[in-house]
Amino acid sequence: MKNVLVDSDVILDFFFDRQPFSKDAAIILSNCESRVINGHVTSVIVSNVYYLLRQVAKHEKVIEKLGYLLSFLDVVITDKKIIIQALNSRFNDFEDAIQNFSAENSGNIDAIITRNIKDYKNSSLSVMTPSEYIIVLK
Fold first, then answer.
1. Could you tell me the residue ranges of all domains in the chain?
2. Three-state DSSP class for 5?
3. Are 98 and 86 spatial neighbours (Cβ–Cβ below 8 Å)?
């Protein structure tokens, strides 16, 4: 399970140093940066992270941080087909449905790394917390 979608909560744990989750988030992102893991995000994740970081930092700083992230994370496609799948799905959270179907339709994502596992109960992919995934990596 080397190809993963890194959910926005993991990225935000890292940037906001949210304890006790930031250490595991840093390990996940470090492994993506070193290419031990092939990390992916969606455009929705990038947009959400921008919005939340922008609440505490200037536009230029946020753009710099996102540019750095995208130097080692790939962006999976979210198109009309995926939005329709999300709209018609059994997911209770529309945003998570978009993430899920973007990952599923990419054809190469093995797992979703998130702290919101319950929101992905209808996923056909493996869904793990960062700490669970770190154990699998060892």
1. 3-137
2. strand
3. yes
pLDDT confidence of residue 138: 79
The CB-side HSE value for 27 (13 A sphere, CA atoms) comes to 15
Residue pLDDT, tens place only, 107-122: 999 999 999 999 999 9
Number of helices (H) and strands (E) in the chain: give both, helices first. 7, 5
How many angstroms separate the CA atoms of 45 and 3, rounded? 17
Contact predicate 89/101, CB 8 Å: yes
- Please, how many CA atoms are within 13 Å of residue 75, restricted to the half-sphere of its CB? 14
In this model, does residue 1 exceed pLDDT 90?
Answer: no
> What are the pLDDT digits (tens) for 28-67?
999 999 999 999 999 999 999 999 999 999 999 999 999 9
CA distance 63 to 128: 28
**In this structure, CATH architecture of domain 3-137:** 3-Layer(aba) Sandwich (3.40)
Q: CB atoms < 10 A from the CB of 92, how many?
A: 11
Number of C-beta neighbours around residue 104 at 10 A: 17
73, containing H or E segment? strand 73-76
